[in-house]
Fold:
Amino acid sequence: MIAHAAWHVATVSATHPETPSARRIVLDIPDWPGNLAGQHVDVRLTAEDGYQASRSYSIASSGDAPSIELAVDRVASGEVSPYLVDDLMVGDQLEVRGPLGGWFVWRPDPAHRPVQLIAGGSGVVPIAAIVRAHRAALDVTPLRLLYAVRTPDDVFFRSELDREAADPGPTAVHVDYVFSRRAPDGAPRPAGRLTRELLGELVLPPQQNPLVFVCGSTPFVERVLGWLKELGHEVDDVRAERFGGA
Amino acid sequence: MQKLDGNVLAGPLSEVMTGDATSAHARCVHCGDVAVIAQAVVYADGSRFVARCRRCDSVLLTIVEAGDDVRLTMTGVTAFTMPV
Amino acid sequence: MALITRGFGSKTHGRDTRLPPGQTQVDDWPVLTAGATPEIAQEIWEFTVGTEDGKTVRWDWDSFRALGLEDFTVDIHCVTHWSRLGMPWRGVSLDRVFEHVETSYDFVMAHSYGGYTTNVPLEELLDGQAWIAFEADGEPLEAEHGGPARLVVPHLYFWKSAKWVQGLEMIAQDEPGFWEERGYSLHGDPWTEERYS
Ligand SMILES: Cc1cc2nc3c(=O)[nH]c(=O)nc-3n(C[C@H](O)[C@H](O)[C@H](O)COP(=O)(O)OP(=O)(O)OC[C@H]3O[C@@H](n4cnc5c(N)ncnc54)[C@H](O)[C@@H]3O)c2cc1C
Ligand SMILES: [Zn+2]
Structure:
């Protein structure tokens, strides 16, 4: 069951730097109906002269709590994201519409169908919600995450993903990084862009019938979708979410 | 103009339909492709959205949000079935 | 009445957020050139991409433009502290060019008629981030602005947008080009003010 979407007034209760260009923002929403992992909100900002702008942001958290966590990356020359990353302060209020979306969502799965998660840059936000929901439910559904990101400094949710990687237990998510610009010392491969070959090596093969979630900038998602098709994944086994950007 | 997909329509569609319309199935009247709305190709310009068929690129629906006013036209789809 | 969010809009619409730190908006287009202005006729103009296996992909004026001209509007930022916002251009996206190039190298040296060079990582030229431009402000590019064709990489300082571009050479490692050898940043991000090395 998906809660009905509506406009809510949200109050910023905490912020902290996520990466040099991104920020995590916690919003308190007293009448929030809860949300599923992978859903998003529309954030609406109104200026004093009545001018409005709204943008979609994925929710990194899930469950019934009356608060949600966002992680926003600054798009240079953007209208909304620089405000959210640089100017918004604890105590500020904004409007959010949600919870939104019912396609790009994951629920703990009694059938344990394997899941391949593929994230590019800030596209990891709804994917992190899935990783967290999987952990919170102590679900043993096999989850594998491929995270393409420029450098180690640009990794979102670093400590939580490290915890998954360090956990030998059956509920741990297997995490592979592809660093396009700079890889850390001891990385299994040098920095380089994601290729079809690498994708083939690092994602669950079609024979295992995985449900695949892909999220990131529009060019990233479209490149990955093309390769997944060539690797033999069925279109309808792949759920994609495009964040935009050229 | 941003190229996105049907997930972004969840908010605007929630103003005119109850339940999540982005996981509704719809058939493209031009080519017959059946897909969920979330799989459509969407071009967004502020709060104006044009959803196109992922297969033949013809227009499925358009939504314009202006303040509290939402205008939806669904000329390019048939057999719109909402999940319950 | 909608809820007003503190601080939103005061500098968000109209000005400022599109201007990187240390930049001033201009409405004209200043000319900065080191050395003489080459004059290249369309009949002899060509564009090449050289790769590691010694192959050179080559286009002439018509075949290159046939890759697909598109209009794009971008902000440009010169390291000498001026920016022009919302400037209209017409050219061929490097995505179209690289559809015809096989390479495993991650860096690019752009070469110009007249010998100018500049280095850019390949990743920063793809996905709609760079073009070979033939028109600006609705007119064919004048020679003083780099015509008949120049590279345009709007998210980097404008010295990376090589005038009179002749071709790209794929290179294994990042290497300094003309200005980079003379003390300018190897990368040149205006948002973090990567002006000098
Ligand atoms: C369903 C959905 C969920 C999203 N979730 C998140 C999230 O969790 N975190 C997050 O940081 N963003 C997310 N986004 C992207 C977000 O909605 C905005 O598009 C982004 O913050 C840029 O907004 P802006 O107002 O700053 O830029 P705009 O003023 O809208 O755009 C300025 C320029 O930047 C370019 N641009 C826009 N978006 C991007 C981008 N994503 N990457 C690169 N260039 C871009 C545009 O082409 C434009 O030229 C999501 C988008 C969608 C559709
Ligand atoms: Zn169709």
Summary: Residues 98 and 126 of chain C are 8 Å apart (CA to CA).
